[in-house]
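hey m, so remember when u said the C-alpha cells were messed up on ur end? i reran from scratch. heres the input so u can diff it against urs
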Amino acid sequence: LELQYYLKKISGAKVPIVFEKSDDDNIKIYVGKSKYTDELGIDDKDLKYGAFRMVSGPDYLVLLGLK
C-alpha cells in the first residue's frame, strides 16, 4: 500500500495491487519474494540484513529486501 500511495503521489497513476500474474501488457512490480520472482530466477539468498535488491526486465521490476 505504501508503494502504491507514493507512486500515485509522484505520477498521479493508481497502480493496482494484485496477487496473481496476468497476461496483459502492463509492467509488473513484484515486491518481496514470490513464486513469480522464483520463476525469474531472482532471489534474496545472498543479501545481508538490511540489504535490498532491485532488478528490472523488459516488463517487470523486482524489489526484494531483508529486514
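this time it looks ok to me. The chain has a mean pLDDT of 89. if urs says something different then somethings off w ur setup not the seq
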